[in-house]
UniProtKB/TrEMBL annotation:
Superkingdom of source: Bacteria
Alphabetic keyword roster: Coiled coil, Membrane, Transducer, Transmembrane, Transmembrane helix
PROSITE patterns (UniProt xref): CHEMOTAXIS_TRANSDUC_2
Keyword Membrane attached: yes
Gene Ontology BP terms: chemotaxis; signal transduction
Family: Belongs to the methyl-accepting chemotaxis (MCP) protein family.
UniProt name for this protein: Methyl-accepting chemotaxis protein
PANTHER family xrefs: LYSOZYME-LIKE PROTEIN-RELATED, METHYL-ACCEPTING CHEMOTAXIS PROTEIN MCPB
Organism field: Crocosphaera watsonii WH 8502
Boundaries of every Methyl-accepting transducer domain copy: 54-290
Database matches in InterPro entries: Chemotax_Me-accpt_rcpt, MCPsignal_dom
Amino acid sequence: MTNAGLLNEQIKGAEMSLDGLFWTLLLAAVVLSGVSAAIAIIIAGGVSKSITQSASLITSSSSEIAATIEQQERTASQQAAAVNETTTTMDELGASSRQSTEQADAAASAAQEVLKLTDSGNHAVQETLEGMEDLQKKVAAIAEQTMRLSEQTNQIGNISQVVTDLANQTNMLALNAAVEAVRAGEQGKGFSVVATEIRKLADQSKQPAERIGGLVSDIQNAINVTVMVTDEGTKTVRSEMEIAQRTAQTFSSVAESINNVVINNQQISLNIRQQNKAVQQVLEAMSSINQGAQETASGLNQTKVGTKQLNEASVELLAII
């Protein structure tokens, strides 16, 4: 049986005991009134036999009343002990409830602190995500610029190749012109000098074009490496963003769980406070019952004294007769 059921049984028992005491006292009062009236009639009539019968009746009734009162005294004593025991139990329950309230409040406060930390962590993750998004945009912009640079470098390489080809063709034409000038003899000497100068200019144009081609090749290799690194950086940023997003989702789930813990602890604390209030009300009710039992015990004692005096009076009356 739960504490509430035991308490209800004890309260019902106390009410029944008080009802029994009430009817016992009422019966005693009626008997005393009847006995007083009978004595008055007997004395007024002066009949000896009636006096003897009435005195015997008084003695018998007094004994029965005394026995009933003793039974009620035992019942009242047991009830008082039960009330005291229940009061002690309720006091302990109240202390335990107060301790539980404090623990629930402490747990709710701790959960709120953890919730604040979780919110801070979630905020930090969101800032990290924003930073990664900006970094991803910058990496994408670098990749785009690198691709443009690669295209422009290719164009430069193509132009350099054209210059090299033109220089080679010019060199071949100058060589052919020099051969023809030699064949022309004395008349072709001037043309031979011009052809030689043209060959020199062609060679001079070819050398920078070749150097430009080499530089373009080096630049193209560097661009290719940059593109590869940029691609790896893009993949890394994307992977880190996915991790950060999962972390943010985890923080959100943890925050939701902790928020539920806070709500549950607050509800527990509220329920325990209501229980404390109910316990206090029960303690007040038990105090009232205990006070009523004490008053009833006092009334029983007075009735017991009166019954004893009545019994003594009936004995004296029989002795007189």
